[in-house]
Design goal:
- The complex is a heterodimer.
- By secondary structure, chain A is an all-alpha fold.
- Chain A has three domains: 20-135, no CATH class; 158-224; 227-475, MetI-like (MetI-like fold), CATH 1.10.3720.
- Chain A contains 19 helices and two strands.
- The longest helix of chain A is centred in the N-terminal third of the chain and has 39 residues, at 97-135.
- The mean pLDDT of chain A is 85.
- Chain B has a single domain (71-284), classed as Orthogonal Bundle (MetI-like fold).
- Chain B contains 14 helices and no strands.
- The chains are: A mainly alpha, B mainly alpha.
Chain lengths: 479, 285
Amino acid sequence: MPSTPNRLQQRLKHVTVEEGVPLWQGLTVILLSFLVGIILAILAWNGVIGGAHGFLGGESGPLRKMSGLGAALFFWIVGFIVVMPSASYLFVIFSKGRRRKHWSETFQAYLFLAPAFFILLTFGILPVVYAFYISLHRWRVIPGRYIKFSNYIEALGKPTSVLIFVVGVVLILATWLLWGTYVQRGGSSKLKHTPSIVWHIGRWLLILAGLWIAVYGLLGMIHTGDDQVFNSFLNTIYYSIGTIPLQLAVSLVLAYVLFQGLKGQELFRMLFFMPYIAPSVATAAVFTTLFTPRPEGLVNRLIGFFGIPAQKWLFEASPINVVIAKLVGIHLPVWVGGPSMAMVSIILYNTWVFFGYYTVIFLAGLGNIPEVLYEAARLDGANQWTLFRRITIPLLSPTTFFLSMIGVIGTFKAFTHIYVMRVPSALGTVDTVSIVIFDQFFNATRYGYASAIAFVLFAVILFLTVLQNHVFGRKVFYG
Amino acid sequence: MTTTPTSAPRPKRSFRLNVTYPTMYLILILGGIVSLLPFLWMFSLSFMSVGEMMLRHVLPSHIDFSNYIEAWTNANFSLYFRNSIIMSTVTVAGQLVFSTLAAYAFARMKFFGKSVFFTLVLSTLMIPESVTLIPNFLTVRALGWIDKLPALTVPFMASAFNIFLLRQFFAQIPDELYDAALIDGAGHFLFLRTIVLPLSKAALLTVTIFTFLGSWNALQWPLIVTYKNTWRPIAVGLYSFISEAGPELQLMMAGAAIALVPVLIIYFFVQKQFTEGIATSGLKG
């Protein structure tokens, strides 16, 4: 997946350089659209367009509620989208011959793009700027005063601790990446240095130091920051770690079996996929009745069949390992940690929803492995397990990588089913980051604070994506 | 990853597990039961009377639609259902027009700033919904769209994912076809309408289903832009019903079934194209 856009961009670059409108004319159109947009934005910002007094605003005008940065961004988009095709149409009129043909195509393309661009800019890209602006303000339903980074400090704790944490993480990553390049160079035999024991010790000392610094910073952050935010990140991590390996394992087995081409495999594929397409509000509602603490709930009846006493499931806030230990007669203290029983119920729900999707994608991945490899290995006397271990697993690694990346991002964004399945007696042990953001926004009406947490989440997701691409992505084998 | 978009996961018979057939079928049947059981449980509860619910029955004594009738009439599900149908249809229509136009421009037209614009479109895929939620709510509120249909549909009428998906399809249509159309005097718009669209039915179907499901199943956004029942879609209606209903499980399950049935019907008609669409777009998107 990560390689596709890059390759695409290269191809596109090739196309635009080849032939088209002259650079200065194209830039003129874009700059003009930018400028008109900015002029409109300034007018909207100062209340000349929209708002309580401006054009189309006033007492009953359609744009009376348009004011502030929101209005400015909106009118910038309007200006940009309208001027781009109009200005290029002027070039169509005033150009001749071949150049006119190019301009006419560019003009049409801008017209084709205009509606989609309008929507994507208004609701997809510029909201990021707006959200950052909101996060710097005390903003409760209506905008309040500018408070710099106070919302971020309230969420994450002392800035010095955050800085120490970031330094620690950077140290670990820098050591790791520099080591990777050093070893690669050394291995290519152009350099004589093979890493000696001193280098190894040095590297591990640096990583340990980074780890120590990061943990020190993190403890400071937890101490001074918002407990709810840090708990929500911990819950999200539990959720990811609990969900992804389980989903990958279950669906790999199912895909492997389906791939054998048994009779009726189409039917099974269809059944496995049903949970994925069903509305999650509906299925989450069903699961609240399955994982109910009442003894007549389906899951409690099922475990009762094996002689296990009824559990509280979604209503249980204590960690799963404590609950299991209690079942076998050991009393673990609650501070041992681990995902709560309620979180485990949600992890099971999530696996139920996504295993069909994962299976279908694994099936496609299995179909891409060349049959010749298996035949060659079989001639060399490899058994079934060796084939699976040495051919299927490595050649499936792009698929596995893609799925785990989707999974991490998905669990960080998960909202609907958790929102439906959370109950007060779970004591917030299932509240992931997106739930806390929504709570702060919707129920506590703290727009500024919610936006600040959302930006922290955005930063974490970006960091994880880059990390997955650069550190783990290297180990992936692309045929 | 150079498969054609229509390539299905082809089962191959030539290499087999060393496990016997019964074990494999056992695994599949187990998976099938696990994925079906919650649905059966839902339908079973939805047909029960209050008495049977109290007596902790597993199956209803007879098929009784009174819960459905009550949910449909008294609990406003007829209104929610109508709203969801309209909302999903409008969103799909907008998505088909706007994403198709944009995808065609990116696939087959030469214009200034193409790669920059395309990167811009793709970058929206990285931004989590939590970040854009609050500003979008403020924008929609400023436009006066709260409790109105545009708030539920317009923000979802174009998506980077669909533009990317359609672009991949359109780019595979041979250039010779366009050259021929050009000689016949057709422009881009005519070529798109008469040749590209009929050739990309599979891709358009995938986009339709994805958009429809996304619209039908959405909770978070409709929840914040609807205060009154006028335009509440079924997901929000069901959610508010769950949070208010309390012990009336059988009604809740009937409501859930009402939300589920249209999706299931559509799925049974198009399930093959849909799973194939997932398999290819999943690997490419």
